[in-house]
Design a protein that fits this description.
The protein is mostly beta strands. The chain contains 1 helix and 10 strands, in the order αββββββββββ.
Length: 151
């Protein structure tokens, strides 16, 4: 019985472990390429990921705790009432984003997506799944991208 309990505790600890995504990656988007620096720290038992565009000396970067808490995003002209939530699942970091989309002060749709980040063949894999909902229907979002490890 003790070995079963110890095994369950060990399994639970492993299930909550976050992947090591630390590195610098070259990511190619539709409108160009950027070098992304990713690091992580452990704070009070929570893995905190830090992202920064290494090509932009003015980019202060941002921190993302993988604590499964919902955080409100700052409203912009185009996106309002947004939330962000991140957690670790298996060998991946999951990031869920939701927001209302506005154009010229008119609400035109709702965005809901999950980004899954993991290491595949020593590179950073980003898979985005979700949908964009408008009055005329739901439009799926299914994209994947591999960022090549620079170091």
């Amino acid at each position: 019985m003790k070995s079963l309990l110890a095994g369950l505790v060990l399994f639970g600890a492993q299930a909550m472990a976050c992947p090591n995504l630390t590195g610098t990656y070259s990511c190619t988007y539709q409108d160009g390429t950027e070098k992304m620096e990713l690091s992580q720290t452990e704070t009070n038992g929570v893995t905190v990921y830090s992202f920064r565009n290494a090509d932009d000396p003015n980019d202060q970067g941002g921190n993302l705790p993988a604590d499964n808490q919902v955080y409100r995003l700052q409203d912009t002209k185009d996106f309002r009432n947004g939330t962000l939530q991140s957690w670790c699942e298996g060998d991946a970091l999951k990031i869920q984003q939701q927001a209302e989309h506005y154009q010229e002060e008119q609400h035109v749709g709702n965005l809901s997506l999950v980004i899954t980040m993991s290491i595949v063949d020593n590179n950073l894999s980003q898979v985005t799944d979700g949908f964009y909902e408008t009055g005329s229907g739901n439009y799926p979002i299914n994209e994947s991208m591999t960022c090549t490890r620079v170091n």
